[in-house]
Amino acid sequence: MAMIWTAVISTSRGPAIHHSSRVGRHGRIFLMPKFRTMNSDAPVCAREALQGSEQRITRVGKFLRRTGLDELPQLLCVLSGEMSLIGPRPLLADDPGASERTKFPGALEVRPGISGLAQVSGRNSVPARRKARLDAFYARANSLGFELVLLVRTIGVIISGKGFM
Question: Is 132 in a helix, a strand, or coil?
Fold first, then answer.
């Protein structure tokens, strides 16, 4: 993580770690850290709401997003109990998926995760409504075996790069 931090601050202006308010379990808002992958002047909003977001991603940021390394600071949220390794991704309050989740019972009842069913089912290519359905399914089907399968599938997605920007 120290090497990533150094790469981020040495190749672009601004802090290496970015914190954003996210919707967590039971709709509770918490601060989620990520390595900064966009220019420091980029607005904080859902990717779908930001026009020209591709041009705002830094060179190092493209690599971090493709490999998922930008998510490593979230391990601190796992240690604090705010997040889990596997679960629905915590969304920004203005993300279209946040309102979709409220329509599916159970989608907000589990601890959010660094990776989850929607991430291994296409990640950024999955529409918000389908992600919410997958999150609700995960909440109902949650078991240690299912989480282990998703953890292994996450590694496969990272290696293949499928579904990343």
Answer: helix
Q: Where are the alpha helices (DSSP H) in the chain?
A: 2-11, 53-56, 59-67, 75-80, 96-101, 117-120, 128-141, 144-160
DSSP character for 15? -
- Compute the distance between CA of residue 59 and CA of residue 56 in angstroms, rounded to an integer: 10
The reported pTM is 0.83
Kindly state the tokens that stand for 104: 């599916």
* Token pair of 73 as six digits: 């600071």
Q: Is the pLDDT of residue 92 over 80?
A: yes
Distance (Å, whole) CA 68 – CA 63 = 8
CA dihedral 115, 42, 9, 68 (to 10 degrees): 20
Measured CA distances, 14 to 36, 46, 58, 123, 144 (Å):
9, 20, 12, 27, 39
Question: Can you tell me which residue has the tokens 């379990």?
Answer: 25
Residue 145, Cβ neighbours under 10 Å: how many?
8
Q: What are phi and psi of 85, to 5 degrees?
A: -65, -40
pLDDT tens readout for residues 2-38 = 999 999 999 999 999 999 999 999 989 999 999 999 8
Please report how the helices 59-67 and 2-11 are oriented relative to each other, as an axis angle in degrees rounded to 10: 150
